[in-house]
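Dear colleague,

As promised, here are the two records you asked about, laid out in our usual form so they can be pasted straight into your sheet.

NAME FIELD: protein one
SEQUENCE, THEN STRUCTURE:
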Amino acid sequence: MASKLRQLQSKACQASQFVTKHGNTYYKQLLEQNKQYIQEPPTVEKCNELSKQLFHTQLASIPGRSESFWKELDYVKQLWKNRHEMKVEDAGIAALFGLECFAWFCAGEIVGRGFTFTGYYP
């Protein structure tokens, strides 16, 4: 166990040295590649303006999202009406999707409780 701890410390030290050596270069390169997204001057007022633009842009996208939702719902209704014609593959995909949603729900519940498992354990 102690040898694994030393290996981990050694790797962490190597990673730290690598970041120290190459981090500044990577940072400058990243800023250079994305300079079209940087707002000048970087003031609080500019940040507030961008925040408001993002908020209102998201608000403006609601009708399009709503329309897409209703189209998807109509598609599901049509599938349900014609369920006797549904293939086994389609039913399997739907079942896997439902199972995935349930698993994400369970994972979210566990995370929401602070990664604790509750319940009856004999």
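NAME FIELD: protein two
SEQUENCE, THEN STRUCTURE:
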Amino acid sequence: MSHLNEHGITHLRHVDLAVPDFEVQRSFYKDTWGLTEEGKDGNLSYFAAEGSPEQYIVRLRQSDDKRLDMLAFGMTDAAAVDAFAQKLASAGVQLVNEPGELQTAGGGYGFRFFDVDGRTIELSSDVATRQHREIEEKEAIPVRLSHAVMNSNDPNRTRDWYANVLGFKLSDTLWGEHMGEMMHFMRCNDWHHSLAIARGPHTSVHHVSFEMRGLDEYMYGTGRVMRAGIKKIWGPGRHHAGNNTFTYFLDPSGNTMEYTTELERLTTDEWHPSVYDIADPMTQDLWGTADPMSEFIARDSFNDPDKGLFVAPPV
């Protein structure tokens, strides 16, 4: 039984965001969200999670335009990186660069390309790990990056591209009577999803999710961020698909950030995706503690149209 992605993609490494309000965002991720600023290099800032071996899980870049700079995923080794770069290029995928030594924190070997919607994706291997530690009881800071959800105005096309081109597997789908298929949960390892594709009016970041140590820490963290005056969009609650807890907040740039815990791990490759009807209150929130999903809640996560499509970030 193997959960390994057929091309050797192993996990989500980091999410890179460009923001106009750089200093405000630095303060938010460091002082409110509970990440550790590992380094600052001019207009770049790298944030790590204390419980994660990744060099960083969020990179902020000062920019006039708000955009997703990049989604970065790990690969098994350099040979897999080379083989897959060649495969993508021959399939007509636009590469940003050829595989080579990475110039970012932790080094490594990798390359970048554009996905079907124009997001920049990086695949890499051999990135140095950082000294990390076990998060202690009642310590309400993120353990690791859990998953990233992206908006697409054609989520089925985006789902098919990630499945057919990158080898992600579909775990589950959310469906609505008027909107059709609303969200696809995709996996590259045994976590229920590392990536999800949501139906939105345009290509943008829907939300980025951070795993907490346990339920207690998740609730302490939720309360701390609420007390800091950050706008809570939705939660606390527990989703049906993935069985994970959720509380969503708007960061100062208007990107949605989530605290979660207990995301399901799939024990078999013979997983059969379910389609969950969003009209069923149990689909959105098994506990019934969050407000019912509404168009107002949904609109917050539509985000601004991404200004970086098919334009690779400068660094």
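A couple of things worth noting about protein two: The chain has two domains: 9-125, 144-300. The mean pLDDT is 96.

Best,
R.
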